[in-house]
Amino acid sequence: MEQMKRENPDVVSSMVYGQTYERRNITLLKIGLSSTGRKKAIWMDCGIHAREWIAPAFCQYFVREILRTYKTDTKVNEMMKNLDFYITPVLNVDGYIYSWHNESTRLWRKSRSPGTGGCTCYGTDLNRNFYANWGMVGVSTDCCSQTYCGTKALSESEAWAVTDMLGKMREDILAFLTIHSYGQLILVPYGHPNISAPNYDELMEVGLGAATAIKAVHGMDYTVGTSPDVLYANSGSSRDFARLIGIPLSFTFELRDKGKHGFELPEDQIQPTCEEAYAGAHHIITYAHDKVFYSYAVTVTATLWTTLLAAWVSSAILL
Ligand SMILES: [Zn+2]
């Protein structure tokens, strides 16, 4: 992150927006061209689950790609003018570092906060800890479980940090992308089987477009749907929270593979996984951008024509 800032000081800055249980900084990169107007935003976080190592790799790849291409690719350039990208390469920093500790910790998923009330296990599932139907389905109240949802919503400082940032930025965020593995899925809100997003059809259409873009890169199939439809019901996820507070486009990416290697994706699949996921993310971000900035352009143009027409009508007798 420091290197990206150093090499691209005009467009990259960073912000510490929280601390982990073990007092490490939670840092995001803000990437965009400076503008006098108020910019819209794209949110991306990776590594909320520690063992999903391909996710932080993807965030790094995404950052590199937009920085590599924005001067020459007209679309990326346009989006860098209108949008700021807020990218957290590793959200669950404690868990991620712990998963690198030794072979026995490689598959650690949760945060690293200790259990309470006599429970001797560690860690809360951060993606069950958000204030979004918290504790209702697909969670455990056993602190030893992989899906332990915590003592209450936002008991974890990492979930709180994201909640705080999203709350401050929610009117500006056009798309929220949270990156996981594995399963080759694009998940749309909501994780609760009885609740449907008001723009479900739009979410599915955009998600299916992303899956098509992904397939075009290396031929991999990604399935699109809500968690209960294509995976399992869950509540308290950051994706659901983002949609609940009004961010229109909210997606979970579950990157490669479909279970053969699972979380221990071989090294030679890192690059192709990132390449195809970039195409999927690019599709969603382009849609989010164009929806706001082109409908605005259309509105302005229509207003202009109406004005001209009115002027022409009022002056018609002179013609
Ligand atoms: Zn995950």
UniProtKB/TrEMBL annotation:
Keywords: Carboxypeptidase, Hydrolase, Membrane, Metal-binding, Metalloprotease, Protease, Transmembrane, Transmembrane helix, Zinc
Gene Ontology biological-process entries: proteolysis
InterPro entries: CARBOXYPEPT_ZN_1, Peptidase_M14
GO terms for MF: metallocarboxypeptidase activity; zinc ion binding
Presence of keyword Iron: no
Gene3D superfamilies documented for this protein: Zn peptidases
Protein name: Carboxypeptidase O
Species the sequence originates in: Salvelinus namaycush
Highest classification ranks of the organism: Eukaryota, Metazoa, Chordata, Craniata, Vertebrata
